[in-house]
Amino acid sequence: MEVLTDKKEFEEKAIKAVEIHGHDAEHNYHHYMNQTTSAKMPIFVGFDNSKGVLAQKSKTGKLWYMISEVLAPKEEKFETFMKFVDHVFNKDEANRLQIEVDKKFRKELKEKLENTDFRSGQLNFRLEWPMYDMKTWDGDKLEGKKWKKIRNIKNRFLEEHKVELIDSLDLPKEELKKIITDWIDKRGAEDFAYKECYFRMVDSDFAGCDMAKTLIVDGIPCSITAGWRVPNTNTYYSGIGVLNYKFEGLGEITNLYDLIEIKKMGFDKANFGGSDDDLLEFKNKFKPVSTYNTYTFSIMRKNKDGI
């Protein structure tokens, strides 16, 4: 095992681990690096056969974060994860490790931690991720009763506004950043943490993305949607979707156009990201075929009484 903190040292190895073992929506090296902040430093923990963990460490050194899931073959994920846990607590002497994993891994983890020195803490939050089957998704046609509401929103929007979809790279970076700032101003403090991440995405010319689009409404840049192919799949992950809320119906039009472009690109599925109940209700307007859950919680060392 090797623990690498210098970007020049770990970039090649982290990218290789993602290419070989990546399978999750946020297994994207550039997205991982964009999440770096003054309070969280990136660390790549590498294992044999290009396995690894995209991690972060707090400035104090007492809190670690595992970004997405372990980069390892399915049958080796848990073993690799426990080696990572051993380093975090026994070698680095951290107090807490925060992770986000799916339902199956969480259940297996809780069971196997019973016979170790570690325990899982209470659930911080649960997110639901809608999945769209692009081979059967027919939102590009908007035919039938099931699409009536979206069809009416689209027709009204196009009657009232001049709309153009362009590549985000065709706009000056400051205009793109203004969309992000307007989005944060409308949504509040809970989304402020995304600001620097999204700014870095813009500054890097959307490195790691397969698509980045912006809607121009009546001459005003109003949205950014960007994402990438999930490694080793034909699934597209919409990694960023922001808009300035200047026009009624803008959210529906933005998401509709995004899905249409994803379908044109030939993806089998589209993943529209972790959602709370309100956001999921909105995304359900576009007819996902399924959802899955992820759970965010912490791993800690048991106390002297084994609790």
Q: Which runs of at least 5 residues are low in confidence (pLDDT < 50)?
A: none
Could you give me the name of the CATH homologous superfamily of the largest domain? Answer: Gcn5-related N-acetyltransferase (GNAT)
- Quantity of strands, as a count: 14
- CATH overall fold name of the largest domain: Aminopeptidase
As a whole number of angstroms, the C-alpha radius of gyration is 21 Å
Oligomer: single chain
N-to-C span: 29 Å
Elements, N to C (H/E):
EHHEEEHEHEEHEHHEEEEHEHE
Class by SSE composition: alpha+beta
Number of domains: 2
What is the share of helical residues? 25-40%
Shape: globular
What's the number of helices?
Answer: 9
Question: What's the mean pLDDT score?
Answer: 94
Largest sheet data: 14 strands, mixed
**So, CATH architecture of the largest domain?**
3-Layer(aba) Sandwich
| CATH class category of the largest domain | Alpha Beta
